[in-house]
Amino acid sequence: MIIVEEVQNKHQKREFLEFPAKIYQHDKNYIRPLDKNIEEVFNPEKNKFFKNGDCKRFLFKKDQKTVGKIAVFINGCYEQAQPTGGIGFFDCINDQETANFIFDHCKHWLQERGIEAMDGPINFGERDKFWGLLIEGFIEPLFGMNYNFSYYRELFENYGFQVYFEQLCFTRPISAPISRVFTIAYEKNKRNPAISAQPMKKNNLPKFARDFTEVYNKAWASHGEGKQLEEAKVLKMFNTMKPIINEHISWFVYENEKPIAMWINLPDLNQWFKYLNGKLGIWEKVKFLFLKRFKKNEKMVGLVFGVVPEWQKKGIDGYMIWEGTQHLRKYTDFTTTELQWIGDFNPKMIKIAETLDTTITRKLATYRYLFDRNKEFKRHSNL
Fold first, then answer.
1. Are 383 and 223 in contact (CB under 8 A)?
2. CB 120 within 8 Å of CB 101
3. Beta bridge partners of 167
């Protein structure tokens, strides 16, 4: 018999964080996320999505031992054709009956609140963290990326979940030749005196936050599900990121003073955080600063890439990539770059990644389960 416990007290919160570390203890590729980052998702004072949503966490126990955990939530900003809830932070022993019990519990919780479908595993928040189930490429995860056993895919699909969209991660060596297409685009646009490329600088984050917001909202205007950003929140995010920003790897392109494109990258923090075992106390912070100073980080992660609509298909992407790549080769130790994930619904970005002569490193899947099993299932539409 499986017992359900809602996560409420300190002991239950600790078990929610520790359970994955127990089942992955012999997996050399597992990197424990920072406890702090997990807990902030479930803190109404830290997570803005509680204002228009609800979220609960549960532990599932058998013979007084934890056999699974999950979060289930409703996000008011998650716009879908039918009312759709979410599940995330799922971990479970390799047992279909246990997984079915967990999924059924979430389904009933959502149905009681008028929801007609559930997506998972996703985050109660933005897509940049804890989103998707790893289905290919069981290697060390990037910072903020989900990692799971390969049998999780069977647990989801045997229950009846279907792939709503796939998330593709592309990798290329920094030293690899730049595509001829991008080189031609660079040569074409460099002759235009109005066009210039600039790396992001820490001493002028308000300007770059403003430019980021403008490009992002224009480039993603046709994509719903709460994608519009506010400048103040972007600046707050940039200030939070300031200690780890590398000024050589994030780039903006301007037409005179108007931002028209951006390419935002960060060092992969997991190359340092994997030595902290999920903790970030005083000792761990000192250890992190030591690692950051003396241990080379050779992997950078592509977070966001965007070109405003009026400059798309004019080679600005190639111009920016050529400029940025030449610079970071000279001034950084990075040997590989990985585009964190591109949805299979975004053929434009996939085309850019392919033009970069990348290889697919891993795939994650966002699954959907329709409560009405007679209703037609539709995958995410293309942008």
1. yes
2. no
3. 343, 364
Pairing of the two strands 359-370 and 133-136: antiparallel
What does the radius of gyration of the chain's CA atoms come to, in whole angstroms? 21
What lies within 8 Å, CB to CB, of 176 at 6+ separation is: 357
- DSSP, collapsed to helix, strand or coil, labels residue 330 as helix
pLDDT tens, per residue, the chain with 383 residues = 999 999 999 999 999 999 999 999 999 999 999 999 999 999 999 999 999 999 999 999 999 999 999 999 999 888 888 999 999 999 999 999 999 999 999 999 999 999 999 999 999 998 889 999 999 999 999 999 999 999 999 999 999 999 999 999 999 999 988 888 889 999 999 999 999 999 999 999 999 999 999 999 998 765 545 467 889 989 999 999 999 999 999 999 999 999 999 999 999 999 999 999 999 999 999 999 999 989 999 999 988 888 999 999 899 999 999 999 999 999 999 999 998 889 999 898 898 888 778 999 999 999 999 999 999 999 999 87
Compute CA distances 180 → 118, 126, 187, 322, 325, whole Å. Answer: 44, 35, 11, 10, 14
Phi, psi (deg, nearest 5) at residue 183: -65, -45
H/E stretch holding 34 reads none
Query: Rounded to whole angstroms, how far apart are CA atoms 166 and 144?
Result: 17
How many Cβ atoms are within 10 Å of 52's Cβ, its own excluded?
A: 12
Domains of the chain: 3-165+366-370 (3.40.630.30), 175-334 (3.40.630.30)
* pTM to 2 decimal places: 0.88
Q: Are the CB atoms for 356 and 179 separated by under 8 Å?
A: yes
